[in-house]
Amino acid sequence: MLENKVINIGLAGFGTVGHGLADVIEESRDVIRRRTGSDIRIKSVLIRSDRRRAEVEAIGATPVTDYRALIDDPDIDIVVELTGGIEFPRTLITEALQAGKHAVTANKALLAEDGMRLFALAAEKGVHLGFEASVAGGIPVVRPLRESLAGNSIRKILGILNGTANYILTEMTDKGLDFETALSDAQAKGYAEADPTLDIEGIDTAHKLTLLIRLAFGCNYPFAKLPVTGITVVTPMDIRFAQEFGYRIKLLAQARLVDGKVEAGVYPALVPEDNLLASVNGPFNAIRLEGIAGPVVLHGRGAGDRPTGSAVLADIMAIARHAAPNNLGFVNPVLPEADILDLDDAVSLHYLRFIVPDRAGVLRDIAGVMADRNISIQQVTQKPAVDGGGVPLVFLSHEAKAGDIHSAMREIENMGLTLARTMHFRIL
Amino acid sequence: MLENKVINIGLAGFGTVGHGLADVIEESRDVIRRRTGSDIRIKSVLIRSDRRRAEVEAIGATPVTDYRALIDDPDIDIVVELTGGIEFPRTLITEALQAGKHAVTANKALLAEDGMRLFALAAEKGVHLGFEASVAGGIPVVRPLRESLAGNSIRKILGILNGTANYILTEMTDKGLDFETALSDAQAKGYAEADPTLDIEGIDTAHKLTLLIRLAFGCNYPFAKLPVTGITVVTPMDIRFAQEFGYRIKLLAQARLVDGKVEAGVYPALVPEDNLLASVNGPFNAIRLEGIAGPVVLHGRGAGDRPTGSAVLADIMAIARHAAPNNLGFVNPVLPEADILDLDDAVSLHYLRFIVPDRAGVLRDIAGVMADRNISIQQVTQKPAVDGGGVPLVFLSHEAKAGDIHSAMREIENMGLTLARTMHFRIL
C-alpha cells in the first residue's frame, strides 16, 4: 500500500463519547489503515468554553468555537455530532448534509423525533448519515438490520435498550431494594444521571425502538404515538411475585408485525427466567430479532465511551471505505407511515396484582369481572397481608387483549374491590 | 420505483439449504425489492440426477446438468454454491470468479482449506465472494466483523459453532447420557449425520474458526496447523464433576491475540455457568467477540434451511445493492500468515481428572509433580470409587501453561500413578 488518504473529521461534542472516539481511533490506527486504506484524523473539535481547549489540542486537533468552522472547512469530510440535545444537533447535521458532507451521530432523540427529514436530505445529497452508535452503543445492530439480516425479514423486535433502567431493575431484583434506593445507588455509581427522566421513564428506550422499527420493518412509527411506560411503577413486591412464578421484570422495547400492522411499545414486562433476555443484567443491553429464519440475540454494552466511540468509528470507517450510503436500508428514503395496531387489540399474557380487603367474595367478584370478558386465568395466588393492610392477589392470564384487561381493571377499581393501585404488566 | 432490475442466480446444490434459499427469496420478494431495487430470481439450478428436475421446475428455474451452463450464461450475475465437498466447489467458484461473476457460498471447508487463493482471485476480478452463511448460519457475524465491529479491534473470539456437537453435549448434560447414546439420539432426530465425523471431531468448528480469525485479526492461521480436539473424549463423569464445580462442558472455538501472536484452538472446555455461553443449548450457536470496546455476544441458529438460506440471501442482496466488494474486510486481500503462539505457552485454567488407586501417598505424589512445575491448584476433590475400581481425583488449577500441564500429565502417567486415561480440559 502506498500513501494513505486522510479522512478528516469535524467533531462536535468532546464529552465521554467524544473522548472514547479519540481513544479508539488512536488505538486502531493500524487496523483502520489495513481495513480502509485511509488514516482517520480528528481535525477540528467544536468547544463551547475554553475549558476543553487543552484537551482538544492534546489529541492534535484544532479547537473551534463556531460550528460553521466545521461546515465551511473544505478539508473536513465527515461531521460527527456527539453533543446531545435536539435543536443544535438538528442545525449542525442539516447544514453539514446540505454542504455535501457525511454526518455520523449517536443522537437517538433527534433521529427518532425528526430523523426522516434528515434521511431524506442525506439521500438527496448522496451522503452518509451514520447512526450505528445511536442504538445499543457497542452492539452491532443498525448495520446488521439493514444488511446481514436483510434476508431474514424481521417480524419481531424485543430489546433491553437502556443500561440505566436495566441496572436499577437488576439491583432491585438482586438486593430487594425499592426503586428510590436503587436509583440513588445508580446515581452514586455513575450509572444514572442527575436527571434520570429519559432513562427511567422509558423515553430513551422509545427513541431507540423508533429507529429499530424503521430499520427492521421499513416504516415510520411516529415517536409521539409510541406507548411508553417507565420503571418508576415497578415495586419490590411485584419483582418478588414475578420471581416466584419464574420471571424477571425487565424494561422492554417491543415491536412486531401482526397481519401487516405494527404493534409496538415500551413497558416493564415479565420475562421467563429461561429466556436469554432474563440474563441481561446491570448496564448491559440485548436485542432479540425474530424473522422468517429464526431468532437472533445480540448482547453487549449499550453505552459508555469506548462501546459508543467504536460504533461511531465503524460508521466513519464505512465512509472511508467508500461504501455506498445505505442509511435506512431501503432504496426509497421516504418510509411509509406505520399502520398501527389498535392498542386495545394487542394480545399477550398479563400479570395483574390487586391489593384487596381480606374478606369473603372479593376473589369471586374479581374473577367474575374477568370471566365476563373471556379473560382466561392460568394462575392465581393470594399472598399474606402487606404492611398497611390489604391482601395481594396476583393473576397470570392466558392470552388476552390489552383492551379487555384495561376495561376489567377499571371495572374492578370502580366496584371498590381494591385498596391500592392495581399493577399490570405484560408477560413475554 | 419504476421497473426493477432482475438479478439472476445460478444455483449449484438444491438440498436443504438450497430449498431454504428458494423459500426465503419467495417470501421476501417485496422486502428484497424495497431494500435493493431489484428482483432476485433463481434462473438455473445444477442437478446431478433427474430426481431433482421437477423440484427445480417447481420454483420456476431451469435445471441444468453441466455446471458450465451456470458459468457460460451471460444473464447469470451470481453463482451460488451450496453443494458441499471441496473439489467440485473449488472448480465451480474458481471458474465463476474467473468469468467475472460474483460468487456466494456456505462452504466453510473450502474457504478454510483453500480460501485465500479464491479471495485473491475475487479481488483481482473486483467481484464479491460472499460467505456470511459459512459461519453460524442465521447469526450475522461475517459482515459485522468486517464492518460494524471494525471499530472495536477484536482481540478475542470464543464460539460455540457446531449445533450437532452442542446438541450432543446438551443431551449428555441434561439427561446424563453417555456419548454414544447421545450421538445415536441426535442421529435419530436428524441433528447428526450418518457420518458425524466433521461435527463431533471439531473439524467443522475449526473450519469456521479459521474464517473468523481472518475476519477479526486480518491474518491467515493455516487450518492444518489449528489444534483440534473433538467431543468424543467427553464423559458423563467429567460433565458431572464440572457441574459440581459450577461449570458446563462446551465445544469451544477460541482465538486471541497475545502480544501480537495468535493463540487458537478447538476443544471441549469448562464454561462457568454464569457465562452467557453456558446457556447456549441444543442446536444453537453463539459467538463472543471481545475488543477494545468490550464484549459482544451473538446468539442464534447455526444451521438449517432458512437460517443458512437467509444468510446466503443477505450476501445476494448486498450484490444487488451494488455494495462494493469487501470480502475479507481488508484492503489487501493477501493476509499475512498468523504468528502462532507456541502451544506450550498458552496460559489458562485447567481441569485435570485422574483415576488413581485408593492408597496412601498418591495425592502427595501427584501434587508433588504439579508443584515441581509451579502449577498452583485452586481446588482438588477426591470422589468415591468408580465402577471397575479406582478413585477419581479432580484438580482445578490456577493459571498455568499448557506445556507444564502436559508434561505433568505425562510424568504422572509414567510414574504409574493412574489406572485410566487422564482427562484434561481447559477452563474458560
Automatic annotation (TrEMBL), chains A, B:
Residues holding NADPH: 108
Spans traversing the lipid bilayer: none
Pathway assigned in UniProt: Amino-acid biosynthesis; L-threonine biosynthesis; L-threonine from L-aspartate: step 3/5; Amino-acid biosynthesis; L-methionine biosynthesis via de novo pathway; L-homoserine from L-aspartate: step 3/3
Reaction catalyzed: L-homoserine + NADP(+) = L-aspartate 4-semialdehyde + NADPH + H(+)
Enzyme's top EC category: oxidoreductase
Keyword NADP: yes
Annotated residues for binding of L-homoserine: 193
PROSITE patterns noted in UniProt: ACT, HOMOSER_DHGENASE
EC annotation from Swiss-Prot or TrEMBL: 1.1.1.3
Keywords: Amino-acid biosynthesis, Methionine biosynthesis, NADP, Oxidoreductase, Threonine biosynthesis
Pfam family, one: ACT
GO biological process, alphabetically ordered: methionine biosynthetic process; threonine biosynthetic process
Active-site residues, Swiss-Prot/TrEMBL: 208 (proton donor)
Residue ranges of domain ACT in the record: 351-424
InterPro entries xref list: ACT-like_dom_sf, ACT_dom, Asp/hSer_DH_NAD-bd, HDH, HDH_cat, HDH_CS, NAD(P)-bd_dom_sf
Entry annotated with the keyword NADP: yes
GO MF assignments: homoserine dehydrogenase activity; NADP binding
Signal sequence bounds: none
Family listed: Belongs to the homoserine dehydrogenase family.
Protein's name in the database: Homoserine dehydrogenase
